[in-house]
């Protein structure tokens, strides 16, 4: 999920990165709080974007900033053990920690379900990094342990998620937050609509059985989608709060989420044809204006507006699918360019279009014709 509150808060802010360790005291929800971290951005008015050792980013407005001083030390990210302990202290009672190679999973579900999610995430992580390395993009190991918080109860999840998602928490089964860098989700096997009577959720085989049913397809895809965002923003492919065009970040997440019901474990393949999105895109073609590619690339409006987002997501997926299959080298170069974008600096539509056209070396209408031909031929 992308919550664009920073866009408003930090518009026009830009300053060079300072990498000393800073001790910052500020007002937060009526209390004083000290956070130690790297100041990523300092605004002209004195507000800052602070990255803490747990990977959380704090946007601190000048009025709330009480004290700051730096020392020569460098930020050392929390170890998985420290991260687990800190998360447990913040979560309601009853949570436990399950750790994998890259992930710290806090859960009040069964250990088997946490393990199932851990294996799914690690499979995605391997698939993701291999995919890009075959395309010539070498990704970095995540700087922070990747955190997922899993609630066994849908209601407890929604209560917890409401602070970040608002009312949408009732209809979304999981999300990734730029601010906390975490995935928060509920136990999909506990979602009533996905349970058949007599289901027990105690073994890996049972979990596989439940989550490979067609009814679970959308929920599993959502979790893969959010986990893809998290990996992309922790592997150097994208920077949190940088101006990554939404058609890229969302289109890629949809590209990776493609459900695969042939897999007994809910998800396996990267880059398979996404049937639902293809159908949506083909329906959109009937009314698609000739400026569609341009408006998709130039800014994020169509993807953010709920009236147009379904078509725009389908088109973003289609464009990613086309570019990755038809112009893989250029697309990798384009992603490299985007990966160098600093946080909180916003490009204008002109820049977006120019960078896109420079990357793909064609005029837009030629590329559009080629794109449509390619998508219409797919079976
Ligand atoms: Zn997304």
Keywords:
single chain; 379 residues; alpha+beta; SH3 type barrels; Glutaredoxin; five-stranded antiparallel sheet; 14 helices; disordered N terminus; binds zinc ion
User: What is the level 1 CATH name of the largest domain?
Assistant: Alpha Beta
In what range is the share of β-strand residues?
Answer: 15-25%
Structural Rg: 21 Å
Question: Looking across the biggest beta sheet, what order are the strands in?
Answer: 4-3-2-1-5
Total number of beta strands: 10
Helix-residue proportion? 40-55%
Whole-number average pLDDT? 90
Which structural category fits the helices and strands? alpha+beta
CATH architecture annotation name of the largest domain: 3-Layer(aba) Sandwich
Molecular shape? globular
- Distance N terminus to C terminus? 30 Å
Q: Report the CATH topology name of the largest domain.
A: Glutaredoxin
Low-confidence parts, pLDDT < 50 over ≥5 residues?
Answer: 1-18
Would you summarize the structure shown here?
By secondary structure, the protein is of the alpha+beta class. The chain has helices spanning 5-9, 80-90, 111-134, 154-165, 204-211, 217-232, 246-257, 275-285, 292-298, 301-304, 309-326, 328-339, 349-360, 364-377; strands spanning 21-28, 31-42, 48-52, 57-60, 65-71, 96-99, 103-107, 146-151, 174-176, 182-186.
Characterise the protein shown here.
This protein is α+β, with helices and mostly antiparallel strands and 379 residues long. The chain folds into three domains: 5-71, SH3 type barrels; 80-237, 3-Layer(aba) Sandwich (Glutaredoxin); 275-377, no CATH class. Helix content is 44%, strand content 16%. It has helices at residues 5-9, 80-90, 111-134, 154-165, 204-211, 217-232, 246-257, 275-285, 292-298, 301-304, 309-326, 328-339, 349-360, 364-377, and strands at residues 21-28, 31-42, 48-52, 57-60, 65-71, 96-99, 103-107, 146-151, 174-176, 182-186. Strand 2 and strand 3 form a beta hairpin. It binds zinc ion.
